[in-house]
Amino acid sequence: MRVTTAVVLIWLIIGAIAAGQRHYYSHGPSNCSQAGTLLVTIVAGPLNYVGVNPKISCKTPEPSK
Question: In angstroms, rounded to a whole number, what is the distance separating the alpha carbons of residues 37 and 5?
Fold first, then answer.
C-alpha cells in the first residue's frame, strides 16, 4: 500500500514538473480547455517525456438570453 502511494505521488509530481516546463502555470487557466489540459498533463506524469502531449478541448454552454 505504501509503495503504491509513493509511486502515485511521484507520478503526479513528475506530471506537475512537466506542466511547469510547458509554462502552464504562468497564467491561470482562463477557460475549460486550458484547465483540462493542465490537469491531464499532470495526470499523464512521466508519459509527457516520451512524447505524450495531452490537449483537451471543451466548450462551456453559453447563458440563455
Answer: 24
Cell numbers of 48, please?
509527457
pLDDT in tens, the chain (65 residues): 899 999 999 999 999 999 999 998 888 777 888 888 999 999 999 999 998 888 888 877 778 87
Collapsed DSSP state (helix, strand, coil) of residue 58: coil
| Model pTM score | 0.79
> CA 41 to CA 44: how far, in whole Å?
5
Residue labelled with grid coordinates 495531452: 54
